[in-house]
From TrEMBL:
Domain 3-dehydroquinate synthase C-terminal: 181-323
Cofactor(s) named in the record: Zn(2+); NAD(+); Co(2+)
Name by which UniProt lists this protein: 3-dehydroquinate synthase
Enzyme Commission identifier(s): 4.2.3.4
Organism of provenance: Bacillus gobiensis
Domain 3-dehydroquinate synthase N-terminal: 68-179
Biological role stated in the UniProt entry: Catalyzes the conversion of 3-deoxy-D-arabino-heptulosonate 7-phosphate (DAHP) to dehydroquinate (DHQ).
Binding positions (Zn(2+)): E184, H246, H263
Annotated gene: aroB
Binding-site list for NAD(+): 72-77, 106-110, 130-131, 142, 151
Length: 363
């Protein structure tokens, strides 16, 4: 088992290893000053069928546990599910020393984390991530639900007490979900370290990764994320670097329609565009076509559906939380591993996006 310290104001540890879910209650009881009165175990339907019984039993040996199951998928990050979970917590007589355990991917993590952040003004929670994407979402303390008018609009910052990442759980994850999560690993490499990126580029098939390779990549990805978060917990500065590939990625996701394309597939295209922009605007000297070929080989889409208009994408970017006064913010690289924020005016961004769609996707 590998252990990583997240040095936020209230520090916590991330445990990564094969089969470590069986040690959940031992690891939880070793957290200093932490002795939950009750536990609300929150999971989704698919994960429930696969893993919750085992985790429930392990926790129930030590503490009173109630399990709450939400439907699988993004639609559960809703006010309705949030309300139901608060009801469950109240009816289970949870108190300020009770704890939420989030067993699932980013959806369960964000939802359960927000329940914990707000129940009785905030109680502890522990993340047990079950997707590759959750190496990103389970660390950093951003928790949120969606509003029908936009994603993640209702939320808070609330760091977990611990993250227990059992890589064995990834064995049942569908290939498309693995690819989606792997895009965030790639992102973490691009913004931090060329060596890490070169090592990742030896991967030609995500499905073919061994468990120890995955553990190593997850460890490195979380190391990048946690060091950024520790230096900027509330996203006032450098935390924005984690949005590399996300300005266009989010717009693509929204234009395709949520669920029509995975987050990671959108981010992969967003990263390619960010690299293209980095060459034009940030002086990046890189072998763009090698990244294009590699992402293609891994199964990512590398060009946006022709029916989607550049203007619609630009308008989406204008509505982004990070856009201020008609100027779109992009995280670009001056060198691999060296991110920097760049502001590009709407008209120029549209021109460059058109250019990239024409020439950058087929180099
Ligand atoms: N808080 C953050 O910092 C942060 C960062 C990135 C993404 N997110 C959020 O994360 C969410 C996406 O997370 P996700 O991609 O993990 O999606 P998800 O939680 O919906 O999981 C994807 C699918 O895989 C299933 N699944 C989960 N674990 C499984 C397993 N081990 N075996 C088989 N199936 C399994 C789920 O039931 C679901 O159908 C989004 O809502 C996004 O906003 C948050
Ligand atoms: Zn992301």
């Amino acid at each position: 088992m590998k252990i990583l310290d997240v040095k936020t104001k209230e520090p916590y540890q991330v445990y990564i290893g094969e089969g470590i879910r069986k040690k959940t209650s031992k690891l939880m009881s070793e957290i200093t000053g932490f002795s939950p009165t009750r536990i609300l175990l929150i999971t989704d339907e698919k994960v429930d069928r696969l893993y919750s019984e085992q985790i429930y039993q392990v926790l129930a040996e030590k503490w009173p546990v109630k399990k709450a199951v939400v439907p699988s998928g993004e639609q559960s990050k809703s006010l309705e599910c949030y309300h139901q979970l608060q009801t469950d917590a109240i009816q289970f007589h949870m108190d300020r020393s009770s704890c939420v355990v989030a067993l699932g991917g980013g959806v369960v993590g964000d939802l359960a984390g927000f329940v914990a952040a707000t129940f009785m003004r905030g109680i502890p929670y522990v993340q047990i991530p079950t997707t590759l994407l959750a190496h990103d979402s389970a660390v950093g303390g951003k928790v949120a639900i969606n509003h029908p008018l936009g994603k993640n609009l209702i939320g808070s910052f609330h760091q977990p007490k611990a993250v227990i990442y059992d890589t064995e759980l990834l064995s049942t994850l569908p290939e498309a979900e693995m690819r989606s999560g792997f895009a965030e690993v790639i992102k973490h490499a691009f913004i931090s370290d060329e060596q890490f990126l070169l090592q990742l580029m030896e991967t030609y098939s995500i499905a073919g990764l061994t468990s120890s390779q995955l553990s190593e990549m997850i460890y490195k990805g979380i190391e990048v994320k946690s060091s950024v978060v520790a230096n900027d917990e509330k996203e006032k500065g450098i935390r924005a670097f984690l949005n590399f590939g996300h300005t266009l990625g989010h717009a693509v996701e929204a234009e395709y329609g949520y669920g029509e394309i995975s987050h990671g597939d959108g981010v992969a295209m967003g990263m390619l565009f960010a690299l293209y922009l980095s060459e034009k605007k940030a002086g990046l000297d890189c072998d763009y076509s090698s990244y294009l070929k590699w992402l293609k080989k891994l199964g990512y889409p590398t060009s946006i559906n022709k029916e989607i208009k550049t203007d619609s994408l630009i308008n989406r970017m204008m509505n982004d939380k990070k856009t201020v006064g008609g100027i779109i913010q992009f995280v670009l690289l001056t060198e691999i591993g060296h991110p920097q924020l760049f502001s590009i005016e709407k008209e120029e961004a549209a021109e460059l996006l058109d250019q990239w769609r024409l020439e950058g996707t087929s180099r």
